[in-house]
Amino acid sequence: MSGLWLQVLFGGLTSGSIYAMVAIGLVLIYRATRVLNFAHGEFVVLGALVTISAARTLGTALLPSIVAGVGVATVAGVLLERLVVRPVSRNPHFVLILATLAASILIRGVMMIVWGKDTLRLAAFSGEDPLRIGDAAILPQTLWVIGSAVAAVALLGAFLRHTAYGKAMRACAENPVSASLSGIDVRSIVVLSYALAAAIGGLAGVVIAPIAGIDFQAGLLLTIKGLTAAVIGGLENLYGVVLGGLLLGIVEAYGSAYISSVLKDALAFAILIGVLMVRPQGLLGTRAR
Amino acid sequence: MTGTAGTMTGRARTGWFVPVALAVASVPALALHGSYLMGTFSTIAIFGIALVGLDLVMGYGKLLSFSHGAFLALGGYVMAILSARYGVPVLAGVAAAVVVNVLVSYIIARATLRMSGYYLAVATLGFGVIVVQLLGSLPDYTGGWSGLTGMATASLFGWRLSTDFHFYVAGVVVMIGCMAIARNLMASRFGRAVRAMGDDELAAEMLGIDSARYRIQLFVLSSVFLSVAGSLYALSLRVITPANFDIVVTIDMVLMLFVGGKETLWGPVLGAVVVRLIPDLFESLDDYKTIMEGLAFLAVFIFFPRGLAGLLERLARKERLPPRPQAHRSAHGVLTQGAAAADRTAGGAPLIEVVGLAKSFAGVAAVSDVSFALTQGQLKAVIGPNGAGKTTLFNLLTGVLRPDAGTIRVRGRPLPDGGPHEVSQRGVARTFQTPRLFDSMTVLENVLVGRHGTLRAGMANGMVPLAGTRSEERQAVQRSHELLALVGLEAVADAAVTTLSFGQRRLLEIARALATQPAALLIDEPAAGLNESEKRFLGDLLIRLRDSGLTLLLVEHDMSLVMRVADEVVVLDRGKKIADGTPAEVQRDRTVIDAYLGPEVPVAAG
Questions:
Q1: To pair with B84 at 20 to 30 A between CA atoms, which of A265, B136, B423, B555?
Q2: Which residue is closest to B110 within chain A, CA to CA?
Q3: DSSP code for B331
Q4: Helix (H) or strand (E) holding A91
């Protein structure tokens, strides 16, 4: 009994970590351009698929494949900003986010042509033998996932707090006009935000690929889950959305273990709607007026 | 009077819209009868119905809602379950589907009402996923993921719907009806309110439009269109599965709407034709369908944001420049029928009375302990340096902000606390520092939105306008022309507001505020950005308004204008009132000179 409880907790932390990594990217982009990026899940899928293909060609060495996957996702992030968001940036936000939705359809179409419609999988980083913790059996890959999320959050936090670029990013998020007046190149900060966000998304795809099979259309649901986590957390606050992601993952895990696995997604959105009805600005968000 | 131009042309055109639409629709019916493409066309017609509903919320209402797939699904499933499991006749099933969708959409609208923009988008997206999953996981009722079969064949008045051709005919008839209804509605009082909200919610509220109420009505109405479309869709598919209403379908519908052109009559249908027909014509391209969709969608956003219908409209119509306006000064009696003159406050009591008003932002006092009174028929000016709290004062007086302390009384009663629309209904109108017009509308329509509170027509009257509604509308149009004449914009009544000069935008905003028949008009820095002759015209206008009995409160930096028109002046400095009196008294006041006017004022001239 207690073994199941612990096992489910790890399952929840694993998917929660992925949701959190997707949500962090969404928040970075939101803070830089006030755009909800509906193409964000595509970065995750792209990172995973490129890594899988690279691992097949390169053979044993996994690290170069991961670098390739994350790198391609990063480039996709920069291209999204330059080719899609920037050309329409003078339109209302409404149009901006629908443009990212259009981009997501395009990226998905390209991925379908390149990788086909089959579900692909990556070999686990440290084998498939489960670790025993008490009565629970835990796949080593789940530790990679959780570890990557912790590392991503910690590094990003340090970057934002301690480096000049990070401080400039925070300044732009607060007030782009005055940031620009104090000599910050807002344009390059925006590009940096998209690149970082896409890189974190790509990494999420790479680490989850051995556990969950990835196909060309997995991105949409990831986007929706990431958005849910981001909105639960309050959209602006990095730690809030990490909390939102973990909460979402854990509730889903216990929900599908103890209530019904089919209703897992429904439960997630029920929580979202519940949170928003009580706190329309999200858990750690501040009310904008 | 040029009479019923502008907004009314939309309605006049509906007269021949129906025959034209039927003629167009008969082409595929005759040409493709028996072809496999007939099925595609029946789906196009059904999606056309759904898209007209989606356009109401997403196009005109500018609400980013992704719940339409869910309403399509609920509509289809309620009808199908009643028919397949309980043998309910199809038409009764459709009626039940409408009832269920009305209830559900009302609840969803209430629940998400407080959410803005993105939060609404994600919450409604979530709702869409929940509905599809529930449908899939309740196999006892819905047939689960493998689908629901066994619906009866629909028969309408003895005519059985069994082939693609039948569904095409039924779909087209319903679709054209829906298009006509939506068209009427969007040209009506209801539609103007919705479009105004979509353009600028605060400005709409300030004209007495209860945006929360209209948002709910719009949402519910759209779900009715979607239940009808969903029922027809289910009937035409014969076997429905939750995947037919998946989130991908929801997104496809958004794509169709934007490709076709939102907020246009033909856009929804055009979008459905393009997005549905092209892939079916080139079946060999199936693998590239998604890429093509993505490219088409992106191209629309980047190159022609108004979609195909917008593009065609632009090609068809040569741009005409509106004639330059002539300001004319003889508009006597325009205001005498308004509430301004009709309002008789008993015994000279103040119209607006402010006592001990205070408001601070993050510890900084924007307004502190301000008291003054505005009596009937008075023109009072509020002056003070930048940051003195003038605009905050206006926002407090109009219910945009709530005071931390103090009271505001209008005609002896406390200011209503339900937001700006209630303040407007109480007879207080305002203009903004930078004019906030409804940019998707004509000059005349902007003023007509101002008439909102004086008109009665509701949603049903808007869909099918009967004699009473039409005559009410005619009077409103006439009255709006009079107000435009008053501010010298009559000649540009039918121009798009985006073509107006800055000065004209200001005057239009004043006319629009006057259209609400206010007892008091609050004007925020009207002279800013105007040239000398425009300022003179504005000053004359303010005096004429005051002389006709209107009470005015004016925030203004232009001292010569203030000294010329104001009966009394209140001076604010750093949130506090430092003087209150006639212009002459204020000009001599030591504190005022030190704080604001400075020693060398343009007083000597006056």
A1: A265
A2: A277
A3: -
A4: none
Structure-model confidence comparison of residues B153 and B562, the more confident one: B562
d(CA B445, CA B462): 15
Distance CA(B305)–CA(B182), nearest Å, equals 21
Closest in B118, B125, B301 to A88, CB measured = B301
Give me the sign of the Cα torsion angle B302, B304, B308, B309: positive
pLDDT band at A1 (very low <50, low <70, confident <90, very high): low
| C-alpha span between B234 and B80 (Å, rounded) | 7
- The residues, ordered by sequence, that sit 6+ positions from B537 with a Cβ below 8 Å of its Cβ are B327, B488, B507
Residue A211 to residue A14: CA distance in whole angstroms: 10
DSSP letters of B47-64? HHHHHHHHIIIIIIS---
Q: How far is CA B153 from the centre of its chain?
A: 41
A-B CB pairs within 8 A amount to 129
Taking an 8 Å cut-off on Cβ atoms, the answer to whether B288 and A97 are in contact is no
Identify all chain A residues contacting B254, using CB atoms and an 8 Å cutoff. Answer: 98, 101
- CB within 8 Å: A105 and B301: no
Nearest chain A alpha carbon to B254: A98
Residues of chain A with Cβ-Cβ distance to B64 below 8 Å are 94, 97
- Residues 177-196 on A with a CB inside 8 Å of B are none
CA distance A134 to B270: 62
Query: Which domains are assigned to chain A?
Result: 2-278 (1.10.3470)
What's the pLDDT tens digit per position in B515-566?
999 999 999 999 988 999 999 999 999 999 999 999 999 999 888 999 999 9
CA-nearest residue of chain B to A268?
A: B126
Testing the interface with B: which of A94, A104, A222, A261 to mutate, by most B Cβ within 10 A?
Answer: A94
Say yes or no for a CB contact (<8 Å) between A265 and B129.
yes
Mean pLDDT of chain B: 86
Residue B575 CB: number of other CB atoms within 10 A? 23
Query: Which residues, including other chains, have CB under 8 Å from residue A116's CB and lie 6 or more apart?
Result: A216
This model of the complex carries an ipTM of 0.85
In the prediction, which pLDDT does B334 show?
Answer: 52
Residue B471 confidence (pLDDT) above 70? yes
pLDDT tens per residue across span B235-285: 999 999 999 998 889 988 998 999 899 898 899 999 999 888 877 777 667
The mean-pLDDT minimum among B67-76, B309-318, B366-375 falls in B309-318
In chain A, whose CA is at the least distance from the CA of B297? A102
Say whether domain B339-597 belongs to CATH 3.40.50.300. yes
- Name the least confident of A34-48, B123-137, B472-486: B123-137
